[in-house]
Amino acid sequence: MGELQNFISKYFDELDNSHLEAIIFNLIGVKSFFLFTPTKEVFLKTVGELLECKNNGAGIPLFIVEEDLRAKMKGQKI
Fold this sequence. Notes:
The chain is an all-alpha fold and 78 residues long. Helix content is 59%, strand content 0%.
């Protein structure tokens, strides 16, 4: 587990959604938001997957991108 995951694991209960959203923004450079507060396990898994995508040069998973940007990336309207 990397430094970021260790930080999240240690302080997750003290972080609110705005903190979690800022972590995602810093990873992918796209504003995101949560419809609900994720569990620590789900958030750590998401961060791990995003770090893996970033390290491998893969694209951003579309589930994390807001709808209008997702439509532009797919070349269609949602």
